[in-house]
Amino acid sequence: MTESTSKGEPNKPKDTKLLYLSDTYKFEAESILVCSGSDTKGTFVVLDETIFYPQGGGQPSDVGIIEVDNRTLNVHFVSFNNGIVQHYVKESVENLNYASPCKMKIDSDRRLKNAKSHTGGHLLAGIVEKIAPELVGVKGHHFPEGPYVEFKGKLSSFTTNEFIDKVTELIKENIDANRIVSAREIDQLELRNLRNTEYQLQEGKKARVVQIDDFEPVPCGGTHLKNLGELKNFNIRKIQFPKENTKIGYICG
Ligand SMILES: [Zn+2]
């Protein structure tokens, strides 16, 4: 993972501390350069802790800059690799000093757009599962182009038009009520009781879940809004039934 051209003895990378898990709205922070490397996606740097969200869980990565050794690195993509967050940069990383302090700044507009789209997906899934128990959320895609949530099972409690009207009405109610979105860690016992997960934890590990008010908690490592009132609009784009599943496209911001 390390490059021989950089100065100093590189530190052996340990798991990156994920600052975005505790604060969606932290757009700037300081960290320490741990090492650099390259793979098929390009050249990357690893930091001790990061505010950059790595792409995954149906959410695009953050982009931004890292200032280190009086140089500015433009981060165009971020990925997660066995506990290590890799920040892919456009510039050369030769002769960077490992253990140098650095400053991170993410694109805050992009972060908030992603958090809105992602939180909107949870809201949609939570409401659908409440009013149509035959549907269980199995996949969320929260990219700006065509976000959707896919459910296992085919809609049978309502006609499609009634369903869209009801879901739209309840989403508006929940946004107007400015319901709180929270995240916490749970253990295997609590995880097993959740309706829509077959996820298995390693011994002694905990899972992060996100929860809107009294909705069912959902395992998720993404970035979310604090309150639903931050969503200014929400619309269902379309509903489809691929392979006996139900797929609901939405748009929100
Ligand atoms: Zn989430």
Ligands and ions found: zinc ion
Unreliable stretches: none
- CATH homologous superfamily placement of the largest domain: Threonyl-trna Synthetase, Chain A, domain 2
| Helix and strand pattern | EEEEEEEEHEEHEHEEEE
* Rg from Cα: 20 Å
Largest sheet, in brief, is:
6 strands, antiparallel, barrel
In the CATH hierarchy, what is the architecture of the largest domain at level 2? 2-Layer Sandwich
CATH hierarchy, class of the largest domain = Alpha Beta
Helix content: 10-25%
Q: Note the total helix count.
A: 3
How many domain regions? 2
Residue-averaged pLDDT: 92
Global shape: elongated
CATH fold name of the largest domain: Threonyl-tRNA Synthetase, Chain A, domain 2
Q: Which sequence of strands runs across the widest sheet?
A: 2-3-7-6-5-8
**Alpha-beta content class:** alpha+beta
Cα-to-Cα separation, first versus last residue = 38 Å
Report the strand count.
15
Beta-strand proportion: 35-45%
Could you characterize the architecture of this molecule?
The structure is a single chain. Helix 1 packs across helix 2. The protein is of the alpha+beta class. The chain folds into two domains: 17-106, Elongation Factor Tu (Ef-tu), domain 3, CATH 2.40.30; 111-252, Threonyl-tRNA Synthetase, Chain A, domain 2. The protein contains three helices and 15 strands. The radius of gyration is 20 Å and the shape is elongated. A hairpin with a 6-residue loop joins strand 9 (136-141) and strand 10. 18% of the residues lie in helices and 35% in strands. A six-stranded antiparallel beta barrel has the order 2-3-7-6-5-8. Bound molecules: zinc ion. Zinc ion (ZN) binds at residues 118, 122, 210, 220, 222, 224. The site of zinc ion has 6 residues, from helix 1. Its EC number is 6.1.1.7. It is an enzyme of class 6 (ligase). It comes from Brachionus plicatilis (Marine rotifer). This is Hydrolase.
